[in-house]
Fold these 3 entries.
Entry 1:
Amino acid sequence: MITKTMTIGDIIRSYPQTLRVFSKYGLDCYECQVADYEDLEHGAGVHKTDIEKLLKELNEAIAP
């Protein structure tokens, strides 16, 4: 399960299928050097993205 406190880099490394969700929201996090240090909630805030919607879609993307 993906949480708000996980770093974006950890999410992408652990769940590469989430890249399409990040891209959908304009978060090109796989190219960002800050991804290894920035938690999901902060990154969503910087990009003015609804964290709850993003979190829901990320977790749906990793569901079996």
Note: Residues 8-62 form a domain with the SP0561-like fold (CATH 1.10.3910.10).
Entry 2:
Amino acid sequence: MLEQGFWQRAWRHPSFVAGGCMVGLLVASALLSLVWSPYPVGDIHIPNKLALPSAAHWLGTDSLGRDIASLLLVGSQNSLLVGFIAVGIGLGAGVPLGLLAAARRGGVEELVMRAADFTFAFPALLSAIMLTAIYGPGLVVSIVAIGIFNIPVFARITRGAAQAVWSRDYCTAARAAGKGHWRITFDHVLPNIASVLIVQATIQFAIAILAEAALSYLGLGTQPPQASWGRMLNEAQSQMFQAPLLAVYPGVAIALAVLGLNLMGDGLRDVLDPRLARQR
């Protein structure tokens, strides 16, 4: 549970405030697009293709006459969806494995860590290519591939942080009092590493957005007619000299989303660190 002065410290931290505003804008865009967008994303109007920004089309139109602002708004949904589910997969599978490795040690720890090393040999892009060959491209493929990549990341982070807690005197006292491994894990270890996991989750969320954009750019992720920032970049490359802004808009959206999450993660790390909290 966050201590009482968390928000007071957080709002005095410039990195957290800047990142929070950017992330808030991303979330607000996704929520707004659920109920309203200037035009349907599948609304193709060829005679109006590559139109310049105007009152009718705030950011202009693409090579098919689709409204760019609408595509950006709806595309934020996919970025958030992939981020939430992929990070959820990493947390849901990686954290228990890391806690198990730290609690049991010995052969169990070795088995978990070697499995994590093996999974690291298959980054999100390679996993997506293999899954695409079996099931075909799509949003689900992106989510599963990125989620699998997140599992060993969280397992390693959890195991390292948990081992540091297990060496503390209060864990030794709990063992001496007769508490079992899992009781100590849930009563003492997990609450004390929660801040580390929260910060890592924000970082992996940013990586998931980048990975989804890369997979969609390569045609392995989100498929038309669904909107995706990565697909917008893919479609813009053939119009780079005729309409360079088609690549600028989604590129800026991806950069702001990733920058905001990284800034917020840095801010959270400082605010949640007890030593830094005492200095503020």
Note: The chain has a mean pLDDT of 90.
Entry 3:
Amino acid sequence: MSIDFGKASDFVHQHGTLFERALFDYLFAGGSGQRLQAIIMCYKNPDGGFGHGFEHDLKAPQSNPLALEYLLGVMKHTGIEPGVILDGASDWVESQMDEAGNLRNPPETRDYPLAPWWQEDGGQTMPDSIVANLIHFDRAKPSLVRKTKRWVAERHTPESVRANEWLFMAYHAVDFFFAIDDFPDLELYRAATIDNLLACAEAAPESQYDSLFAFAPAPDSIIAKALPADLLVKYLDVLEGAQTDDGSWLDQHNLRQWWPMTTINVLLALQRYGRWSANR
């Protein structure tokens, strides 16, 4: 099935946020990276954190871990240059840690629209992915890294990594264990992470297929090389044929606010794997 890029562009520009529209243009239409960075900075607060509904599930303007976690994941996946975007982020994360290393969420998050799965804690409390991606961008201070390593060591084992049953949720292990190079039994954790990804990918319904390419963003990526080639082909075949009549790709929960970003992610995966190109 051929990709209708015009319909995809129309959908994202009609339904996406200003950030999503700018990201689409940056990735597929020669859009300005400086403009994209400036738009991201509109979500940043003076304390060094991010809020203002940058992550769709939490609309509070106050800085919160979920907004930074999402931003870092998007930046790493799409190749956005950090510039000054992450200035102060490491200090902000460390300021939100309690003695055990869990992240606090401002109580005001509950005063704004909040996805039901975040109601109990008011947002993300796990620091592993956030700190790992700060490490990726060389923006994590040593004290923050030490605290996060201790938090991970107290909560995760290779067995607990393998016990994950949701493909999407593998990002905690993937981000952390492939960002650091000094951790007890690191190779065992990395092997467990690959094993879990493969098990989750083999069991995942087609609605979750786009999630795999957050971990295997391109054919030469570490995870892609570790996964069976026929599995990647199967996933790409499904995604290539999954564009809807309005030009979008649907997210696994069928939540319309996520369709523009899902569309961006699928197009990027198909382009990186040679299934489609915006330049054709």
Note: The chain has a mean pLDDT of 97.
